[in-house]
Amino acid sequence: MIRVLVAEDMHIVRGALVALLRLEPDIEVVSEVASGDEILAAARTSRTQVAVIDIDLPGKDGLTAATELHEQLPEVRTLILTSLGRPGTLRRALAAKVNGFLLKDAPAEKLANAVRGVAAGRRMVDGDLALAAWDTVECPLTPREIDVLRLTAEGRDTLEVAAKAFLSTGTVRNYLTTIVSKLNARNRVDAIRIAKESGWI
Q1: 3-class SS of residue 5
Q2: What's the pTM?
Q3: Which residues, 6+ apart, have CB-to-CB distance to 111 below 8 Å?
């Protein structure tokens, strides 16, 4: 039996995922969580083999949680689910060393097959998305710039971003100016739109 953890904050979606997986004779759902902060502890106590993780979770996002699992419980395989089939999102997922990447609107049988594939040590990625990612431009922003832009996108003002990122307000303003320039954006709101559409944040 493949021991699976499901991490999804929307109750109806999580219930549907669990119900689908429980129909499979070789898959056992051993844990369900609603936030990224719960994943590591739940995976550890339930002896999870495959973690099926929504990319957009409250607390730690799915990719951060997947990275944490990879570092602290390397035996746990990770399958990221997303409704955003953007190449930049896939690039971020692969950089986080996830084992699989599946769109939420994929046919139900693809989910079970993806779980089996990552459990067997294979990397499971939607073929069309992989080709699109191959052809796209790399993100021009540094990890620090991405952090600043992500915090700004959450609606935080310069002071809050500075406090959260342990930077001075002047440095945050400089980062935002550089980001707007690098993305050829009109302003920071436009920079956030470009980065989101590209799957970089």
Answers
A1: strand
A2: 0.67
A3: 17, 20, 21, 52, 102
